[in-house]
Structure formats: C-alpha cells, structure tokens
Amino acid sequence: MWGPPELSAVAVAFDFAGDLHGLSIGGPTERTREQLHEHVATLVNAKQQILLTWRKSEAA
C-alpha cells in the first residue's frame, strides 16, 4: 500500500521571449507543506524579477 508522497513541488510558468519556461521548488512533502506560502512568494518574485530584467535589457 502506498503512503503519502515523499517529494512535493510548487511551480510557476511564464512566457519568456515567446517560449514557455518554468521555475519550481521541490523537497520533502512535510517541509514543502510547512513552507508553501514562502515558496510561492519566492517563485512569484523570481518570475517578476526575471521578466523585469529581460524587459530592461530589451529596451536598452
């Protein structure tokens, strides 16, 4: 019989210059659950920073 998953992940996808990309954070399920809100905030912030940096470089 299978138990709960031992590994979980949270991910965010984004369009970068016409190509789809993704960022993810994975780890032990218990720790992922405990830090879910922090992981989501980190991924959303990273996505925003990547897109902002890319847009600035395209404008230059």
Write structural notes for this entry:
The chain is an alpha+beta fold. It has one domain. 50% of the residues lie in helices and 33% in strands. It is built from two helices and two strands. The protein has a two-stranded antiparallel sheet with strand order 1-2. A hairpin with a 2-residue loop joins strand 1 and strand 2. The N and C termini lie far apart (58 Å). The mean pLDDT is 91.
What is the secondary structure topology, with strand pairs?
Blueprint: E1 7-16, E2 19-28, H1 29-34, H2 36-59
Antiparallel strand pairs: 1-2
Number of extended strands: 2
Radius of gyration: 15 Å
Strand order of the largest sheet: 1-2
Mean pLDDT: 91
The helical percent reads: 40-55%
What's the main sheet like? 2 strands, antiparallel
SSE ordering:
EEHH
Discrete helix count: 2
Number of domains: 1
* Poorly predicted runs of 5 or more residues: none
Tertiary shape: elongated
What is the strand content?
A: 25-35%
Structural class designation: alpha+beta
Q: First CA to last CA: what distance?
A: 58 Å
